[in-house]
Fold each of these.
Amino acid sequence: MEDNAKPSGTDVPTLADVAVAAGVSTATVSRCLNSPDRVTQKTLKIVMDAVDRLGYSPNYSARALAAGRTNTIGAIIPTMENAIFARGIQAFQEELQQNGCTLLVASSSYRQDLEEEQIKTLTVRGADALLLIGYQRDPKVYEFLAKRKIPAVLTWVSDPDSDHLSVGFNNRQAMKSLAELVLENGHKVIGCITAETSANDRARDRVSGIRDAMKEAGLDPSELLVEETQYSIENGDVAFRKLMAARPRPTAVMCGNDVLAVGALRAASALKLEIPGDVSITGFDDIELASVAPVPLTTVHVPHRRMGQFAAQALMAALNGNAPDNIELPTSICFRETLGKAPAPNKR
Amino acid sequence: MEDNAKPSGTDVPTLADVAVAAGVSTATVSRCLNSPDRVTQKTLKIVMDAVDRLGYSPNYSARALAAGRTNTIGAIIPTMENAIFARGIQAFQEELQQNGCTLLVASSSYRQDLEEEQIKTLTVRGADALLLIGYQRDPKVYEFLAKRKIPAVLTWVSDPDSDHLSVGFNNRQAMKSLAELVLENGHKVIGCITAETSANDRARDRVSGIRDAMKEAGLDPSELLVEETQYSIENGDVAFRKLMAARPRPTAVMCGNDVLAVGALRAASALKLEIPGDVSITGFDDIELASVAPVPLTTVHVPHRRMGQFAAQALMAALNGNAPDNIELPTSICFRETLGKAPAPNKR
């Protein structure tokens, strides 16, 4: 098959080169690499010295196919900026490491087409299993993974009705809980700054959570003032200014994550608005940024580290032939200083 | 060779399965995948439909070896937390994408042993080229990459005397420029919070830059009060408190990066120290965090985006058989509000 043709015009050392250098058969070299306990210490040393000297790397792709494992795990996250996914992925990696696995991460810029390409690249490059963010993708992607028998764990989401393995949390319920607190503080005109909801199920669920709470409190959920943008401090700043120009002006702005909320805080400070005296602002995630914000941020705490750790354990279980259970982790509200009572009407 | 044995007990579709499903020879399937212009549109459609239906992926590893390219590029960064490397890597990825390449990133937790493992994994998994951070690693790693003909670009550093391709900046000179400003403001007792310098050439160079400036200003560089820790807001906070307990107490604390500096700011606020009235604090990097810190941070601005972009261009050039030049990018001082005059002696 021409797919296995030896590369021409390169001098990447082959197994045969190692055999010649070590003065042994290729079968012996192969045995040293695959079953070192079946050769003598002396032979092993001679062969491994030759391996080192020539810079030979066994073709793990083919070998792993035979063994069924490469010990490489892939993760595709929407962005490496803003540290939104950083802590969870770090914990995921630490747990994998303890299981002798190496993590390779790709970042899709929140683009489904790129994510699909990256899933193929990671699979072709031999990833044993994948961590992905959210549920929303072309069903063909799930079929592809199923056909190739690549276990995937979906994180940052939890839906008991889904067929797909997940380790995450309920975005809608988490945001609803925070929205209930906002409403209890007397806020009736509420703004929301969110990531684009069409391609991001986490963002969509969080907005729905706010609407759920409004509905239960007897407010019209369609009156929620929504600004869609991309996650960044700068974009949070711009969106907050737009919301402050609306009439009636929102007395509370709930942000889809902490990064947007910190941008909103920055804009509020520039607009000489007191937080929370004039406007309340909330976040989501509880990344480190939330606690060092100019006004420490009231936000939803997500157990990122445990999510990453449990996701790794679920994939390890799946790779060992078990059927791991979905895990839904509880979130909590982290009370700091940006949520307060709605200002009296004459103060608005 | 047993390395190429067909996996047993799995039903990953093979080229032969596609041939059977499409009713053509394996040679035709192979031609469709490798030289689609050599088959008719009709045949191509029949075969590619079978490929999709079965979820077949050609063995790109072997194919790419023959072609010499996989269009996969690897990057190994010390950490994904704290967004230190995020912006540069994002720009690196965007530039690669425009060249049809996919980026896979590994994170080494600042550990050389893990980085070596990850270099091997990425190489074995078919990375065409690598981006690495800093110069400092076992010479064997460079030998390994040279033998395997994997171009590597070293970033976040610049040393005209090095043989290795680099796209980065001069950490020592950048920090020296900032230290000169600190000294011009009358500070004589200076503290420094840095990452561990033994395994981190960027951190070491930044500390050396402060000492260079002290020496030129007639101060004894050995009097620099150095706290080594790992990059995190929490660790910056702890280290700052240690420095504030020293006698004489530093009137300026220069931090190895913005993350540590934001931790120092948090501690200063807890200690009721005015910034910069009582103590000046400086950072390094100019990540987004610096501008939203409780007191906006005076820091060294690093052109992260351009560095990532130029690093990708350098690798593309190397892969196309050219010998790209090293690039040293200028840094600049970003003046905000945390650097001021040293307090009068009676105020200390």
Note: The radius of gyration of chain B is 26 Å.
Amino acid sequence: MNTLVDGVAQDHIAVRDRGLAYGDGVFRTLRCEQGRLLAWPRHYAKLQADCAALGIVCPEAALLLADLAQLAPASAAVKIIITRGVSARGYACDPSASPTRIVQVAPLPDYPDSLRTEGVQLRLCAWPLSIQPGLAGIKHLNRLDQVMARREWQDASIFDGLMCNARGELVEGVMTNLYLLQGNALYTHPLADCGVAGAMRGLVLELAAGMGVQICQQAFGADRLAQVDALLLSNSLAGVLPVRQCGAQSWHNFDLAQQLHAALLEQARKESIPCCPV
Amino acid sequence: MNTLVDGVAQDHIAVRDRGLAYGDGVFRTLRCEQGRLLAWPRHYAKLQADCAALGIVCPEAALLLADLAQLAPASAAVKIIITRGVSARGYACDPSASPTRIVQVAPLPDYPDSLRTEGVQLRLCAWPLSIQPGLAGIKHLNRLDQVMARREWQDASIFDGLMCNARGELVEGVMTNLYLLQGNALYTHPLADCGVAGAMRGLVLELAAGMGVQICQQAFGADRLAQVDALLLSNSLAGVLPVRQCGAQSWHNFDLAQQLHAALLEQARKESIPCCPV
């Protein structure tokens, strides 16, 4: 893995960084293919919004792009972490602290075509998502919920785990957003007091609406799985994936997932920019 | 500040440490005076319990004490952070990862005697505490709630801010546990689905019970402040503090706080061990 911290190649950060002490920061995971960052404007807008929500100064896009030009990945999973920076002991922030900017490049995960043609297998996690309206939607560094949920299985055939919140509402996957197709309506949790509003979630909803699918952002329980025609997942690395099975339920309608994936990839490539010197 | 990481003097950690990526770890703050760690067995037991709750292997006490002997503080705020260690991209843990052990020594905060004789001033924070039964009580590294609440004020005369959860229950201070005295009963939130059960909280409740005070762990709202005879705070660095004022409410009964502080200090010193070579 190649890493830059504040533009300098290094594999460590200050032990007093608030990202370590408090998870005081945000992050993004992006897909880079053939030297181009997919859906960059969408990711950068989300990074800005998440920083603003926590009161962290978001680095200029030009700085991040200069970092990426230095790392010059061809195909990669790019991770950007912005923390509030280094400060002394205690929760109070040193107002003079400047944010820490971390850019990492790692190999893309190996997602075979069969995931898209045969659908993925899920499980239902026992770990509940925290209820916190103040942090809902933000991709921040307080991710113990996801860590604890991901510890529930070792079986490599399980692609992701679905998580409910403490009220029993089915919200999202550990590393994906979740959509339920019933008739011509696509249901997804509104994420008003829990969950992560992924950058691809917005694009999926836009594209589905453009295909004439009705979008319903509303809460539902895990019992709803028995009633729906198809389950879909999205994230920035995998795009849109159809679900084959979750526990006792199974689905065979992969059409919308495949159409949305093709449309999402096309749009994400249209919105891509080169991340190496061209 | 002096820091050891895995027993080695250094001021940085690996950028791939899960403590940074996910807040995947726990911490302790302890008071060291005249080379002795106050209430060490209590702190170590809590560290073990918090590590166990997250499935992190807790380092042996001997390792931590050897670190502290190397740092050899006289009077200090000691911070111990244990993370799940370094792993590759993604929420799944590398089972071969070994925990990262960070021991830091910083000057004790300057708490004048007047805080104890005149009481401290508080404010009520707007930021709600997350509801999460799985993490309640644990002093983990997902501390954005405290960071965001602490950002609500700059006034140095405010010692701490009180936090409610999303259900409107008054739970604790940003950096303290909270107790309400009404008649002969001491009320404190049960922390079943939010909050941090500080190491000193258990000792305060033991000591108060020993003084004949009735202990009531139950939920209450911020409106309860208007009805109580005294407010008390505790943490490991400050001991027990009386509250003089919070918003429009004020209190003048500091007796129990002062008695509990003296008893807590005596017991914490009894339970202390030397942290430098003697």
Note: The radius of gyration of chain A is 19 Å.
Amino acid sequence: MNAYEALDAHYQKINDLRHIGAITGWDESAMMPAGGGAARSRAMATLNVLVHDLTVDPQISDWLVACENLELSSMQTANVTVIQREHRQAACLTSDFVRAQTEAVMASEQQWRISRAENDWATIQPHLERVVGLAQEEAAMRADAGGLGLYDAMLELYEPGVTASQLDTLFEPLKTSLPLLTDEIIAHQAKTPGMPLGDHFEVAAQRELGLSVMKTLGFDFNHGRLDTSHHPFCGGVPEDVRLTTRYSETDFLQSLFGVIHETGHAMYEQGRPKDWLTQPVSQALSMGTHESQSLLMEMQAGRSPAFMTFIAPKMRAAFGRAESDPAWSVDNLYRQVTTVRRDFIRVDADEVTYPLHVILRYELEKALIDGSLTVADLPEAWHQKMTDYFGLSTAGNYKNGVMQDVHWPAGLIGYFPTYTLGALMAAQLFEAAKTRQPETLQQIETGDFSGLLSWLREHVHNRGSAVSVDQLMTDATGSPLTTDAFLTHLHRRYLG
Amino acid sequence: MNAYEALDAHYQKINDLRHIGAITGWDESAMMPAGGGAARSRAMATLNVLVHDLTVDPQISDWLVACENLELSSMQTANVTVIQREHRQAACLTSDFVRAQTEAVMASEQQWRISRAENDWATIQPHLERVVGLAQEEAAMRADAGGLGLYDAMLELYEPGVTASQLDTLFEPLKTSLPLLTDEIIAHQAKTPGMPLGDHFEVAAQRELGLSVMKTLGFDFNHGRLDTSHHPFCGGVPEDVRLTTRYSETDFLQSLFGVIHETGHAMYEQGRPKDWLTQPVSQALSMGTHESQSLLMEMQAGRSPAFMTFIAPKMRAAFGRAESDPAWSVDNLYRQVTTVRRDFIRVDADEVTYPLHVILRYELEKALIDGSLTVADLPEAWHQKMTDYFGLSTAGNYKNGVMQDVHWPAGLIGYFPTYTLGALMAAQLFEAAKTRQPETLQQIETGDFSGLLSWLREHVHNRGSAVSVDQLMTDATGSPLTTDAFLTHLHRRYLG
């Protein structure tokens, strides 16, 4: 067994244990009764320690060095590159640090659930101070090991190869134009207000509709399933993708577009390079790329007039509405899924205002990491930016302000920007798909996603982590990522 | 950390990984889409190897030796005893042997599914020869390591402390009396034939009825759940017991009593000693003891006139039948759940004929292990015993004869007797419970199982593996296990 083969075998083992962890993690969210929680946490912690120990195994460094003298295929070389990065990211933290951080984050997350419900900043602040302090330490260790800036070292965990300076460039035109664009769109939409759809939708009918849409999009039910959980997510493994949704009896669109979103994630996983699934090179390229696949399905394709034309009759059939009911016309349904409003909550935001929520967080978390903003000053800074970007005050409204997201209490710093990178990529990829395959929208209008999915398989899914985001975007669309396609899309959809 | 504490920590880790394995195993049977199978098998194999490596860790021997010089509590001492046995059982087989056996068994099980469906003995015979050959080797290694007889060494895996000679003594009166008793009962029941219940029962209603019965019996839904799978089983972990059933639209009694059976297993798991759940001493005492808990609920309590009085109105309500319908009277429903017949299939057998199915297998597998019977001669030997004990010929009928059970193709030799040990224990324990708590049957008639469950918790569940079966039975019932209570029960229920 040469060094590459040894690496390959080692990562197969890691992949097997991650498989077990992914399924058990899904179970915890979708199946486990509450009483099973304590024992499960302990069991998962033991598994995670085992996996962590394998990823920092000192043999890996030796194998990586020895690989330099081997003739490897391009995929093998790419695999080695991903392993190098993963190994550096895992090995630069001491076990003691990982344990301390895990404990701090668990305590902080648990407190966050309580504090948020009670709009109580004072009880979460000390936890957040501890977690942010540890994140600063983490960033310093990662920056040192990777030769990166502090924030860049955190960002690299989710978006390898992208730096804060690139983000600044990408986000600038959004920050400048979106507030005005939002004004214009809201004024425009006020001229033709939507008609309400009713307020009761059977969960069983919602589930059937969701399953049928998943099938339409191209989800492979031989390699995955749909269940319910409190927080919708896409988990499992590429061979068996587990996605979840939640149902509101008063709003079926929330669940349906949630399912479409998660199906986008799921099909990315199902489309990872088949012959490399046990190896890191088969993994999704980045969190932004992952989000591009969910947003392409949800925002670009799903909320298009073409798809609404296809799905409107199925919506009416699912909930027993007449074609003659004007509220259930294609036009009104389309209006319902493209309504823009300024609001407090990121996860409920439309695609026009969403990037401003992200930019606000990005700016604040950069300042937290470099120490120019303290946790104590965070609520005021949040309020200030919400006022500037949205004209909304969050003074005293922690629950719907600085405390609305789990990310910071969970120690996730550097993650937020990937949501907007995903939105930009989705727009640029969808534009390219439509240009290269001009029949795309007509196909979607008949519920045929096979052409679009094939294009995504070839240009995104099958590439795994074997290229950079820049390369992937250039190969697929002819240029690296810019904001052009996204802004053009917004103008066309909302003011066209 | 002294040697005992080191052992304790080591087995906590093993327990954590077994937890993960149990949940993932449940998922495979109850949730996983078929396409996930290949990757899952690989992942589970990796986890199993990890767990096996931990159970044969050479440090364990050192810790066990060092424990001899420590002052331990009685539970700690019992824990050490169980660990000693488990470690010996794991360590006496080489890794090469385990791998060879695992592969042979997997191939054999897969072939069995095909061969059984096609009633084709010729294709399974070579697999069975290989598996039985390996079982003989296994028995020899186990016998050597444990100072036990060949068959006793296999039996010890499922029923520690019980020997073939004890089984011979227990089974003799059953073998002698049951064929005649069966004749008598069948003749007796022929005088008052049952009325059929109908042939369509909504699955949703069956599920609701099953859930409500689980609640009645005392299943804790905060620590477990009910799902469906092709083969019903009780899996998961004590903190989160996963039980499954399957539904037939034409026969609701099969699923309902299946649920009651699995709930008996499940409540044993839920009742294991709370403070010792991470340690081997908390495990169920033996497979026979486990089966005693399922059969006590299903056969002793569940099919009693008292329970049928309680459940009959709920059955009628579940399926919309009138109280005046004579087929749905308590009497006829009771008759339906206590019908005795001679038949080919063990898993469908009633409690009267079941032990004969077991004794037949026990006699044959003993002969297979000691080499006095070859696999080639097995179908003829099966046919002979079926003719002797049941008056039924299985000549050429492999499917419903020698090929009906997965146990031998799966390499499980020494397991069958535990079914009948469980039936005997169930009868003796239930008799003792009724004697000690004379209100038991009246309580069951009102759907109150709390008294019975408390008694089982104290005398069986909470004891874990800290005692021998003999001791447990003596403490709970006043005498070691005999066939008296079981035979008395049969006479009383079926001829009384």
Note: Strands of chain B lie at 224-228, 234-237, 240-245.
